[in-house]
Amino acid sequence: MEYIVSAEEMKRADRTTSEVFGLSPEVLMERAALAVSDEIGRIFTEHSMAGSPRVLIFAGNGGNGGDGIAIARILHQRGVEVLLIAVGEIDRYRDITRNQLETAMRYGVPLIRLSDAGDTEAVRMITQRRFDVIVDALFGIGVTRPLAGVWSAAVALIREFKAAEGDRVRIVSVDLPSGIHTDTGEVCGIAVRADLTLTMNHKKLGLVLYPGAAYAGEVRILDVGITEESFGDDLPCIAALDEDPRVCVPERVPSANKGGFGKVLIVAGNGTIGGAAILAAKAAFATGAGMVRVLTEEKNRTALLSACPEALIDVWEEALPFNRMQETLETALSWATACVIGPGIGTDERAAELLKGVLLNDRLPLIIDADGCNLIARHEELRAEVTSYRRAAKWPILTPHVGEFARLSDRDPQTVKKEFLTAPQRLAEELSCTVLCKDARSITAQAGRRTAIINLSGNSGMATAGSGDVLAGIIGALAAQGMQPFDAAATGAYLHGLAGDAAAADCGEAAVTASGIVAHLGEILR
Question: CB 3.0 to 4.6 Å from 7: which of 21, 23, 182, 447, for a disulfide?
């Protein structure tokens, strides 16, 4: 697991490292500059830059600019041809950054001042030479409002140089592309679009949230000495899984029988959306479930038998009285070790009765997906049952996408996106449950748990019909094998994304299908 930090969390860790552990800001800055300089040296090798590579460095007046100036000095001392653009009025520089600038000047680092937006034409004329690497050290984690004046002009210059040279020049941002909001990933008017971002010790939220993630390029984490101890007991609020997927799933017991690997009940698929049940069932098997039982509408029986002959099948008929269907449901619930309900069941009265029947049986780990979430949003009685489900210490897991989440929380989708890091935690507390809110990045939160998990695996190809049904099946299998609800949800999202990445690597993002994601689960768990 890796922590993904906000600007305030990172600044607090910086202060603690200096004030408590005694590593001065100057030492941390020098370590950062050395680490970045080493990575730039690797870029020369990786991209076979012949002759004497040239590096253009834009440095601001804050701590990030101090890093940039130190990088310029170190590369200059190593014999690299460097040109430093010092941006902003000198009297606005932080003391540590001004000291770095004075030191660089003593070493003879070539320098141009860019203190007014009107200076950009002069800089453009001076820098007509071709550069191989352009380093963006303007802001780092310091941007919270739209760029203006000389700062906007500096970013525009970097973008202009990139547009003129294309892939021949590599744009390297230090800590965060300048112009990206550290905590939201928003573009503050204009932003650098990096090929590579070198960030210190921990990824920042703006590097993983969109659109910032699309501006960061490849992200590499550099160790400059800020360790987990620097956070003390107040650990960051957001983390991400980065484990080998093979250690994420429950260990296989050689002597166990099929019942020992979990029995998943999937209540899914009305007469027109039978594919949801098939996808969820196949995903559960592919994630290690020993047995899967599907309760679905009778019209889906033949398709299920053909597509997933391993599954047990119970059906209801559209005209069947609910009391008779309830008997079938109760029998299936008594058999299972985890239950998934919602994919493709619709939101009519029959679907509501099914969900209520499941909620009243609070013995099982429960995953409520898709239409199940919509039903909870519509019916206060069902919402109340979700809140009370934890009687048997089984946290229900809700897996809404942003639209379903908006209905559950009585907000519009755009508001949900703006509050994406905090809204799942609020809903989890309100409903006493685990919430996995699905979007380009997904967040898993649980009532009473401080740290939420953001999922960084996956790709745009997974925005495809049935992908959520696959995820529900994966989580159901993990829960059936004994994984705790929060871990099952977060791990399920991670494995789902990795399988999607494997599928995209095989056929391209545009061609990824839900069935393709299922097919690649075995590959990532092999």
Answer: 182
